[in-house]
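User: Fold this, then the next.

Assistant: Folding the first:
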Amino acid sequence: MLAGVSLSFLFSIAMAIHALRTGRHYAWAAAIMVLQPLAGLVYLFVELLPEAMGTGRVRRAGAAAIRTLDPGHEYRQAKAALAEVATVHNQARLAAAAAALGRHEEAERLFREAAKGVHADDPALLLGRANALLDLARPAEALEVLTHLGDSPVDERTPASTMALGRAFDALGRAAEAEAALRSAAETVPGFEGQARYVAFLARHGRAPEARALLADIDQRLRKAPPHARREARPWRDLAAKALG
């Protein structure tokens, strides 16, 4: 018993020292020592194994675990990168990290400031700003930005742009246009957000049977998804279920 406790403690010490010596955020070391040995095992699988193995699946699982344990990790990294090298890429990275934390006013400002000069028509920057405006309940401005992306019809836009367009139309009460865009997004946007937003649209517009059928499809997909994908999908599943009441 004592040997097991000692080994667990030594393992945690080793992981904490590694975290500090390799420049990881101090929160890792603190968590490892407080939550022994679980946090040390998480650190092993999240930080060390992805470096050693380099596989896409391990990296994605590790990134998901980092977001769960330390939601501000990417924001701090992006802010440091922008402070070191002030590029549009780093500014866009910080804007995306701010949006992921719900800091939509900051995200909108960063995307707006980045989309100037030769980058004024950059689709990624414009879409990022449009989504921030939608999250700030400013759909008319978002639609103006999305129109700047082009007047192409729904079936010629990217899935992410189509979903943003559907959200803007929906918020502005343009139901027919919103349905066309959100239905397309539900079929083409990777992950669960597109389907969840379409479920919510159907529920709000009195089409509960269709919404429930689509929610059942989401649940079936979730049962087959790996754990990290299920964690990332949970907020979208909850959004859809809440709309149905």
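Now the next one, as you asked:
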Amino acid sequence: MDIKERVEWIKKVVADAHADGIVYGNSGGKDCSLVSILCKMACDNTVGIIMPCESSRNFGIDRDDALTVAAAYNIKNVQIDLTDVKKTFVSVMGDKLTEKGEQREKMAKININPRLRMITLYAYAQSHNMLVAGTGNRSEATMGYFTKWGDGAYDFNPIADLTATEIFAMLKELNCPEQIIKKAPSAGLFEGQTDEQEMGITYAEIDEYILKGTGTPENIEKIQSANKRTEHKRKPALTFKKV
């Protein structure tokens, strides 16, 4: 599906929902940049929400890059700082987040950030009669590298079928600012975090397996293991059905 087809598809999604616009989380990364450009081409009333939460890069390079893309394509952006909300929430939870070990506590706290962002996007969307656009790609989905009910929640996703490699190519085709294309992919959830470092594998290696079914035995095992372990994230919530 090329750019024109994606844009026409977005137009239909918005029209069918009788929505007045589109809102998305703008982290200044490649995925959200591509989503923002496609959505703006389809719907003039496209709004990016910049949502810094604790991490200093959220207030620095991520916000700067988010604003750069917004300015280049004339996309409205709103900033909502979620740092105090996160601190209050963790305080309210108290020691209830520490009952199952330090690593589980760490991950639970990290995943609060994208879930707070999801709440923010939907609150804004509902109050403005807008749809929430997803910004996750096929490579991330394969690895389960997203937060369930966080960045994994959206009304529609125009890039879900694209690998990270394909997204780079489409951004170049759309003349996205070079600093975005060269930027190391990062969820920006904590200081020094990058996607590839956290997953222990590069997007090029993941995409080689997805697109060609090839890779080193170690990489194939890593991808297949992650995919199996995170299968629940890609499936609809379980519901009881009487046999």
